[in-house]
Specification:
alpha+beta
Amino acid sequence: MQTSMTTLMPPMATTTAIGATTTSAGATLKPMSIVDQRRATIVPINPPTEEDVGDKSSTCGTLLIFLSVALVILTLPFSLFVCFKVVQEYERAVIFRLGRLMQGGAKGPGIFFILPCIDSYARVDLRTRTYDVPPQEVLTKDSVTVSVDAVVYYRVSNATVSIANVENAHHSTRLLAQTTLRNTMGTRHLHEILSERVSISGSMQVQLDEATDAWGIKVERVEIKDVRLPVQLQRAMAAEAEAAREARAKVIAAEGEQKASKALREASEVIGGSPAALQLRYLQTLSTISAEKNSTIVFPLPIDLITYFLKTNDENTQQKAKAAAAAMARTAVEAIAQQQQSTAM
């Protein structure tokens, strides 16, 4: 019975003093190294999970909150001066408790309560701010160097995001405004920058608003203030504008002379049909000259008219000639009288 039990049992391994492993049958295996022996003796330890860490932190946080409340109760009423805070109508308070953002978003306006030692808060101004973008040297698309400055109007639309998502929302917005101004002007021609300021300002406002939305910033308006050109370019543009104005003036003067020549031709045709009309025109010119303070009056008298009146025998023509002569005489007398009065004065 004992013999059968011995044969059924598997060969057992034994370890010698020098670390060699031998079996009961006498076979010798490869000796184990010290590193293998240490690994064989190490027991694996499971790392802590996030749930365990969260449970421990929540427990510690609860304990600290309890101690803070106890401190407030023990130090009443002096602790009220520390626990109660006030923010204005245009402000909001973002509260952190034990480094974590409190639920409910920003507090305010009015009074809110914080626990000492474990709560901290940051004030956020919601009013619109104005940023004067410094002059930026920009190379336009047609290789012209210009200096452009602008004004950006922005405000904080989400106080919690502006504190939690970016270190300094205002500084980041200002740097982005400068970069956007340079990039936008670099893709436009000079004539577009000078004539399409409204559209460029609108495109900049849209780009800035989309980029700063993740920072809790709302860009309300962007205005381009001034576009400064080099002095030589200003002179060249002024000379070009002056030449264009002179060309337009010459064209207008030529058109005026053309219209005047047509009017004179029509007038000559009308006067040619009536010889007395020319004399009336002479008399009107004489009256115009005598109205001014002139010392000499030139009275034109055409010889052809007198010859025509002398050669004709028609009674009607003679009567017309006498009437025209009488009118000319009266006009001459009035002109001389006006000249004497003007000289006496």
